[in-house]
TrEMBL record:
Residues 5-256 form the Indole-3-glycerol phosphate synthase domain. It is an enzyme of class 4 (lyase). HAMAP family: IGPS_B (MF_00134_B). GO terms for biological process: L-tryptophan biosynthetic process. Keywords: Amino-acid biosynthesis, Aromatic amino acid biosynthesis, Decarboxylase, Lyase, Tryptophan biosynthesis. This is Indole-3-glycerol phosphate synthase. Its EC number is 4.1.1.48. It comes from Caulifigura coniformis. Transmembrane segments: none annotated.
Length: 260
């Protein structure tokens, strides 16, 4: 049976082809001039909070289904910012996560903190889309980008002045990721093939990442006790979506998580 990640990637390739047909590259390039200037995502992580928070705007996911029915992306983003989040992550995948690039555009306009485009990036066209939509950072998933593709997209993101967040799950991808001399590394606690999350996964791999590289623990982080564990391990930042989005009182949820 085909695993979820390969299914998402296959679907994404059809979406990219459709987007290119709808908005030719030259047209997309022309839109770059109107994009807001890039904010420094890594600098955003260095202020406040013992473990910096990248708060994720996420309506649904393949593992959880619908997470939050009452979903106003801009209101959620504002609440995250007011609650003390360092940076935001916005899901832009429509088919599997019920996200949208328009959410990114609207949020980036309405908040003062840096914003990451969270999607399955396979093509430099999507990097341009991200910048044209106001993204300050772009996620790259090592498991989706074999061989030279990872390095090429990493360079494309840097060329546009944005920060690549290079994510891996498989330990075997670590050397390939570190060879990029990355500005920001993330370890996903969720195996995108099985959906199982385990915070110990990021804690273990963190030990193999030089302390000069800011490190983000991603997924499955729910409680202040989880945050204390990350802090004790010396982890710089966390990416949290589902556990926040499930709380009716978002401002309180952010405060509770950051009370550590
Ligand atoms: O909702 P969670 O378990 O707090 O996880 C957030 C984030 O880490 C997760 O959405 C994520 C991490 N890497 C991804 C890659 C694609 C889609 C989603 C993700």
């Amino acid at each position: 049976m085909q695993d979820t990640l390969s299914k998402i990637v296959a679907h994404k390739r059809t979406e990219i082809a459709a987007a290119k047909a709808r908005t030719p590259l030259a047209e997309l390039r022309a839109r770059l001039a109107d994009a807001p200037p890039v904010r420094d995502f890594v600098a955003g992580l260095k202020t406040k909070n013992s473990v910096a928070l990248i708060a994720e705007v996420k309506k649904a996911s393949p593992s959880a289904g619908l997470i939050r029915a009452d979903f106003d992306p801009v209101a959620i983003a504002r609440t995250y910012e007011q609650g003390g989040a360092n940076c935001l992550s916005v899901l832009t995948d429509e088919h599997f996560f019920q996200g949208h690039l328009d959410f990114l555009v609207a949020i980036r306009r309405e908040v003062g903190i840096p914003v990451l485009r969270k999607d399955f990036i396979l093509d430099a066209y999507q990097v341009l889309e991200a910048r044209a939509s106001g993204a300050d950072a772009v996620l790259l998933i090592a498991e989706c980008l074999p061989g030279q593709e990872l390095a090429d997209l990493h360079a494309a993101i840097l060329d546009h002045g944005m920060t690549p967040l290079v994510e891996l799950y498989d330990a075997e991808n670590l050397d390939r990721v570190l060879a990029l001399n990355p500005k920001l590394v993330g370890v996903n606690n969720r195996d995108l093939r099985t959906f199982v999350t385990d915070i110990a996964h990021a804690v273990r791999l963190h030990e193999r990442v030089p302390s000069t590289i800011p490190f983000v623990a991603e997924s499955g982080i729910r409680t202040a006790a989880d945050v204390a564990r990350l802090r004790a391990a010396g982890i710089d930042a966390m990416l949290v979506g589902e556990s926040l989005m499930r709380q009716p009182d978002l401002a309180k949820a952010v405060g509770d998580l950051l009370s550590q």
